[in-house]
From TrEMBL:
It catalyses: salicylate + NADH + O2 + H(+) = 2,3-dihydroxybenzoate + NAD(+) + H2O. Its cofactor is L-ascorbate. GO terms for biological process: defense response to oomycetes. This is Fe2OG dioxygenase domain-containing protein. It comes from Brassica carinata (Ethiopian mustard). InterPro entries: DIOX_N, IPNS-like_FE2OG_OXY, IPNS-like_sf, Oxoglu/Fe-dep_dioxygenase_dom, Plant_2OG-oxidoreductases.
Length: 351
């Protein structure tokens, strides 16, 4: 059994043949999910209805953004404008991709974190000591025409459906960035204008059933390196957010997206909106699929705190130095996934 599992590249090709988690996935006792400590019934993240964003209630919606971004850094949105059919088709084709024979899926396998289209497992197999119970297909998708021919051609509808989804989600992101920019007291196009030519990546995450989910993670606690993340998840719970010293389970609500702030938003807002820890747990009964869209600056964009949010006289100095997103992104992928983000290495030292 051990020989056959270690020869497999992907956890989805191990999961169905084991009744115990292989040792390479088992975390130290102090670093396990400890599900009994998770708040599954109490506080959750805010839900913002975008229906009135362009109506007379815009100021109220902008206020909701400010509260959600400053107090939680995570929120859900409904009436977001992405067609329900587009969402259904994306989730269906993602499931079809991961249900293909191993020989078809592994055509796209790579451990090279610089590849713009790749199937891999865990997080960064080259730098981590303990593996995570996750496979993922990562895609760059802006501009789509630069990358679509790299994407999987099977299932046959994959490219068409994924392109339609990525385009719809990008339109939503641009609306969100205007609202977030306004909620910071900036001009509505200010955040968008800091991103250079913009960047957009997607991941299709597949978490197979796990025989001992209390011993491992789908993804351990981490913060996102990008600007904002827009997450689509299926009906299976697994996402947890860290708030006020405890983990909170975020249960799926049909036809909503989950939005969270990433490290670049923390820098641009000069710590007003902070990147926040979140993680994915697994279960023994059901597979889970989640599809995050990572929106980010283009690699040549220079990121730094916005001038209007800096005031030396009122004790609001710039907390971070300026840097290119390429510099940040390389630092992020050079290591294993960790609870500490790279962001502290870009802070201006106080002397």
């Amino acid at each position: 059994m051990q020989t056959s599992t270690t020869s497999k590249l992907l956890v989805s090709d191990i999961a169905s043949s084991v009744d115990r988690v292989p040792s390479s996935y088992i975390r130290q006792i102090s670093d396990r999910p400890n599900i009994s400590d998770v708040d599954i019934f109490g506080d959750s993240i805010p839900l913002i209805d975008l229906q009135e964003l362009y109506g007379p209630s815009r100021a109220n919606i902008i206020h909701q953004f400010a509260h959600a971004c400053s107090s939680y850094s995570f929120f859900q949105i409904k009436n977001h404008g992405v067609p329900e059919k587009t969402i259904e088709r994306m989730m269906t084709v993602a499931r079809e991709f991961f249900h293909q024979p191993e020989s078809e899926r592994v055509k796209h396998y790579s451990a090279d974190t610089k590849k713009t289209t790749r199937l891999s497992t865990s997080f960064n197999v080259g730098s981590e000591k303990v593996s995570n119970w996750r496979d993922f297909l990562r895609l760059h998708c802006l501009p789509i025409e630069d990358f679509i021919n790299e994407w999987p051609s099977h299932p046959v509808s994959f490219r068409e459906i994924t392109a339609e989804y990525a385009t719809s989600v990008r339109a939503l992101v641009l609306i969100l960035l205007e609202a977030i920019s306004e909620s910071l007291g900036l001009e509505k196009d200010r955040v968008s204008n800091t991103l250079g030519k913009h960047g957009q990546h997607m991941a299709l995450n597949y978490y197979p059933p796990c025989p001992q989910p209390d011993l491992t993670f789908g993804l351990p606690g981490h913060k996102d390196p990008n600007l904002i993340t827009v997450l689509l998840q299926d009906e299976v719970s697994g996402l947890q957010v860290f708030k006020d010293g405890k983990w909170i389970a975020v249960h799926p609500i049909p036809n909503t997206f989950i939005v969270n702030m990433g490290d670049q938003m923390q820098v641009i807002s000069n710590d007003k909106y902070k990147s926040v820890l979140h993680r994915a747990v697994v279960n023994s009964d059901k597979e889970r699929i989640s599809i995050p869209t990572f929106y980010c600056p283009s690699f040549d964009a220079v990121v730094g705190p916005q001038q209007e949010l800096i005031n030396e006289e009122e004790d609001s100095p710039a907390i971070y130095r300026s840097f290119t997103y390429a510099e940040y992104y390389e630092k992020f992928w050079d290591r294993a996934l960790a609870t500490e983000s790279c962001i502290d290495t870009f802070k201006i030292s106080k002397t």
